[in-house]
Fold this sequence. Notes:
Layout: H1 3-30, H2 37-41, H3 49-52
Amino acid sequence: MTLQTAILVNAFLDLGVVLAVAAVMLVPFLLDRRSHEAAVYAFAAPLSEDLAA
Protein backbone atom coordinates (compact mmCIF):
# COMPACT_ATOMS: atom_id res chain seq x y z
CA MET A 1 0.00 0.00 0.00
CA THR A 2 1.43 3.31 -1.01
CA LEU A 3 1.42 6.37 1.18
CA GLN A 4 -1.17 8.08 -1.01
CA THR A 5 -3.52 5.11 -0.71
CA ALA A 6 -3.11 5.05 3.05
CA ILE A 7 -3.91 8.75 3.26
CA LEU A 8 -6.98 8.27 1.07
CA VAL A 9 -8.24 5.34 3.15
CA ASN A 10 -7.64 7.34 6.33
CA ALA A 11 -9.58 10.29 4.89
CA PHE A 12 -12.58 8.07 4.11
CA LEU A 13 -12.48 6.56 7.59
CA ASP A 14 -12.32 10.00 9.17
CA LEU A 15 -15.25 11.14 7.07
CA GLY A 16 -17.21 8.09 8.19
CA VAL A 17 -16.49 8.84 11.83
CA VAL A 18 -17.56 12.47 11.42
CA LEU A 19 -20.82 11.45 9.71
CA ALA A 20 -21.52 8.80 12.37
CA VAL A 21 -21.03 11.31 15.18
CA ALA A 22 -23.28 13.81 13.40
CA ALA A 23 -25.98 11.16 12.98
CA VAL A 24 -25.80 10.20 16.66
CA MET A 25 -26.07 13.85 17.67
CA LEU A 26 -29.11 14.28 15.41
CA VAL A 27 -31.10 11.46 17.03
CA PRO A 28 -32.31 13.43 20.10
CA PHE A 29 -33.70 16.15 17.84
CA LEU A 30 -35.59 13.60 15.77
CA LEU A 31 -37.05 12.00 18.89
CA ASP A 32 -38.21 15.31 20.36
CA ARG A 33 -41.98 15.04 20.31
CA ARG A 34 -42.66 18.43 21.88
CA SER A 35 -42.74 20.05 18.46
CA HIS A 36 -45.65 17.76 17.51
CA GLU A 37 -47.63 18.10 20.75
CA ALA A 38 -49.83 20.90 19.45
CA ALA A 39 -51.03 18.76 16.55
CA VAL A 40 -51.67 15.75 18.78
CA TYR A 41 -53.63 17.64 21.43
CA ALA A 42 -55.56 19.74 18.91
CA PHE A 43 -57.90 16.78 18.37
CA ALA A 44 -58.74 16.63 22.08
CA ALA A 45 -59.46 20.35 22.40
CA PRO A 46 -63.11 21.28 22.84
CA LEU A 47 -64.84 22.83 19.87
CA SER A 48 -65.59 26.49 19.83
CA GLU A 49 -69.25 27.50 20.14
CA ASP A 50 -69.40 28.43 16.47
CA LEU A 51 -68.32 25.00 15.35
CA ALA A 52 -70.34 23.12 17.97
CA ALA A 53 -73.64 24.68 16.95
